[in-house]
């Protein structure tokens, strides 16, 4: 079965100078409407994977395909436009503009594209993330969790192909973090968005449909709909993955599935609901 991927990485490697290979031959596809968490030890290449998938970093070799658009060989201007129009970003630091209102922050990607802001679309997105009543406030007048909702609304305004979230709950207390996670889950389930999220936290990753593990820039397996306990267990054994052969992305533990099964896993999940 050929899957409809929001984004696909094909043999992607990323080197910094000669010494650092942040990604090493990563091949992975992320089906539309799926929620995937990327985990691994510090320095394993998680943010690099996310940044390559989002066209923020260029692979040294291999290619990234967003929908049916190959990002290889695109100019900086083209990549900037692709990111603005087709990718939503949510970072640990909310990256909102303090001088703008909530509504203007959310509308910014539309204005930057030189397009008129559709008031209904704007109101709909603000309502969908639960911040309609704060639309005229400045970010500094909101809690961390509310600011992250604004960032999620801004990420959604252009109906992106892919939402990239790097430690989206990293700066939040556990209650706000849970709410933001539930919101990410909801934008996948109800709006059909595709979310790719980097996290260190097994409880956070357990919200995803699939968890992809990285070690030393290589895929070290994935788990489908795991519990936080299964993820934590796996994380403690990740160092063992260094023993696997380069290029061997087969899973070695019970319950694991190959990358190509991520889409099937999601179908199962939704089918169960
Ligand atoms: N701009 C850069 N220049 C040089 N090396 C870099 C650069 N960005 C990342 N690296 C290196 O690439 C490797 C992967 O980094 P990356 O940030 O992707 O890891 P990570 O898994 O997200 O780490 P963390 O969990 O600590 O955020 C690391 O060894 C890092 O030091």
What would you say this structure looks like, in words?
By secondary structure, the protein is α/β, with parallel strands linked by helices. The chain has a domain of 187 residues: Rossmann fold. 34% of the residues lie in helices and 23% in strands. It is built from nine helices and ten strands. A six-stranded mixed sheet has the order 6-7-8-3-9-10. A four-stranded antiparallel sheet has the order 2-1-4-5, covered by helices on one side. Helix 6 links the parallel strand 7 and strand 8. Helix 5 runs parallel beside helix 6. The longest helix has 16 residues. The chain is globular and about 50 Å long. It binds adenosine-5'-triphosphate (ATP). The site of adenosine-5'-triphosphate has 11 residues, from strand 2 and helix 1. This is ABC transporter ATP-binding protein. It comes from Dactylosporangium cerinum. GO terms for molecular function: ATP binding.
